[in-house]
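To close the chapter, one final illustration. This time we ask the reader to focus less on the individual chains and more on the assembly as a whole: which components sit near each other, and how the overall shape emerges from the parts.
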Amino acid sequence: EVQLVESGGGLVQPGRSLKLSCAASGFTFSNYYMAWVRQAPTKGLEWVAYISTGGGSTYYRDSVKGRFTISRDNAKSTLYLQMDSLRSEDTATYYCTTGASGYWGQGVMVTVSS
Amino acid sequence: DVVMTQTPVSLPVSLGGQASISCRSSQSLVHSNGNTYLHWYLQKPGQSPQLLIYRVSNRFSGVPDRFSGSGSGTDFTLKISRVEPEDLGDYYCLQSTHFPYTFGAGTKLELK
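The assembled structure is written out below.
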């Protein structure tokens, strides 16, 4: 059974950091590009970051460039999102996903507030 | 960035009826490799999004044939025939031809 399980979310003050993890199982993780997608409360989906299968290529939405870093460890079948200099507008549920390959995690909530 | 204009915002339907959702992109979604990376997702209340259609018209595993996707270039449509209660929720289109990838704003399919 395919599973993507996110962890690492929580309440954090503006300007602080948080690192999300996404543990994959049930498929060959290293064969899939991965992405993070977020959804602010009552809002639509917003694509955040992408990483290629080997990790050599990464892309970000403009609003997180320079603050967020996507990475992966194929040996551990795990995806990461390092989030620095967090802002209130980063408050959202964060999903890891294989995108058009169809697999999504259950999401993890990140709340940025003082 | 590619802007995805999704309409309508809200779509009241009757069970057993038909629904049609449009997604238009601000530039062509034809990739240099000839593929068109336009996908459709459904998000049911309290759940993660689920893939329905990938690359314009391909149904994902387990998706009933009541769902169909069509279109080309910048103009795409998702059609749902014989709407069932489990089809209700928020529908999103996503383009993954150009970075940054972008979603449409969503269409809420609800009962009339």
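Chain A touches chain B at residues 35, 37, 44-47, 50, 59-62, 95, 97, 99-102, 104-107 (CB under 8 Å). Residues 32 and 101 of chain A are 8 Å apart (CA to CA). With these observations in hand, you are ready for the problems at the end of the chapter.
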